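Structure (tokenized):
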């Protein structure tokens, strides 16, 4: 197949999934064309069957705002014509599905559009009155729609009053790459006195509730010598730095910023914290699980579809810092249980969310959509 992938290039789950999906499809012999305003973060390695097309945005004094949606649509049209694309896969509905719709109109329906809903495109941004009608329209007019969890599918159907068939295809991880490796050096650097290592990875947006991760850690540290690694960056970072200073725990909390290589950090970690307000799937939690790191998370969104409470980690109500801390302490002070949870995490990642299994699901779905006449 000749596939176009429109996605965000930045750090963030939808861009990661889009990029890894495209690379895997290219490995399987498909021709994949990534279309975005910058080179996607994880688009590295062998450039055999995949290509990158940058969306150029002309500026003009009259334009008060960037005109990304039409620029992306024009680029999709160009790539679809020159490269004879069969389909365009839009990751994160706003604005990718809208641009793809425009492109298909211009191309007289010569391409199919698959839209993957990732999370805040549905649960937050898309619900803004200024976007809602366009979101609903672009979902309804896609040839195929997937959601990364049952939770997100239900939310889409109810929030937007849509009756479309939505296929649930969960996030995935390359379990061959994401596996626990010896990480003594990392442990020695961050926890030289044998402290336990807690990790949180996110884009530091309010929806991630990073301050809760710090509060949980603050409680844990009263009982178990530990350090906290905070990976990522974003709008809440300064507030988090302040909170750490307020608690006077700056010696034990390391702000690592954005990181490319997560496997050594995860391999050195004992527990991952994901106290999110909303999480349609929780890709970083899956990556941690694949590296045998049990996850303590909130009970929101798609997290209960990923995590098995009492097996791969524990789930608590949003904001229940005390309970989360209790769960962390329970695991950190019971070595056998911790090991057992780590093994269960790895098993669950390999058996249910491995890249090969899930990419096959996307591939079959593409074939189904291509066989449909007109829009579905
Ligand atoms: O909304 C975000 O945090 C970013 C978003 C993205 O597009 O990068 O993440 C969402 O998509 C990921 C990949 O499908 C999911 O694993 C995340 O759970 C989801 N985030 C939220 O729902 C908050």
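Design, position by position:
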């Amino acid at each position: 197949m000749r596939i176009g992938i429109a996605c965000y290039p930045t750090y963030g789950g939808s861009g990661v999934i889009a990029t890894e999906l495209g690379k895997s499809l290219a490995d399987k012999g498909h021709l994949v064309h990534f279309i975005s305003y910058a080179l996607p973060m994880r688009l590295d390695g062998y450039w055999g069957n995949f290509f990158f097309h940058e969306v150029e945005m002309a500026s003009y004094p009259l334009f008060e705002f960037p005109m990304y949606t039409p620029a992306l649509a024009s680029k999709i049209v160009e790539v679809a014509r020159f490269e004879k694309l069969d389909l365009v896969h839009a990751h994160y509905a706003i604005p990718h599905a809208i641009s793809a719709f425009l492109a298909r109109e211009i191309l007289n329906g010569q391409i199919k559009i698959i839209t993957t809903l990732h999370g805040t495109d549905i649960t937050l941004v898309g619900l803004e009155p200024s976007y809602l009608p366009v979101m609903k329209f672009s979902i309804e007019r896609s040839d195929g729609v997937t959601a990364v969890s049952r939770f997100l599918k239900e939310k889409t159907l109810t929030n937007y009053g849509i009756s479309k068939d939505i296929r649930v295809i969960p996030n995935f991880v390359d379990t061959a790459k994401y596996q626990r490796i010896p990480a003594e050096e990392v442990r020695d650097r961050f926890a030289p006195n044998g402290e336990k290592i807690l990790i949180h990875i996110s884009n530091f947006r309010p929806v991630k509730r990073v301050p809760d991760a710090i509060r949980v850690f603050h409680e844990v540290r009263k009982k178990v010598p530990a350090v906290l690694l905070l990976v990522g960056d974003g709008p809440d970072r300064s507030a988090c730095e302040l909170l750490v200073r307020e608690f006077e725990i700056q010696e034990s909390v390391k702000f690592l910023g954005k990181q490319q290589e997560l496997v050594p950090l995860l391999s050195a970690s004992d527990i991952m914290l994901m106290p999110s307000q909303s999480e349609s799937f929780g890709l970083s939690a899956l990556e941690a699980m694949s590296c045998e790191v049990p996850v303590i998370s909130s009970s929101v969104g798609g997290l209960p579809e990923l995590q098995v409470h009492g097996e791969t980690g524990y789930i608590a109500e949003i904001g229940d810092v005390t309970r989360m801390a209790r769960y962390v302490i329970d695991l950190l002070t019971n070595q056998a249980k911790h090991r057992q949870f780590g093994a269960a995490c790895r098993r669950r990642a390999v058996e249910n969310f491995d890249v090969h299994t899930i990419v096959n699901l996307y591939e079959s779905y593409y074939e189904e959509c291509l066989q449909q006449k007109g829009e579905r």
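Reviewer-requested clarification: Residues 12-15, 17, 92, 118-120, 148, 171, 203, 207, 278-283 surround GMT (CB under 6 Å). The mean pLDDT is 94.
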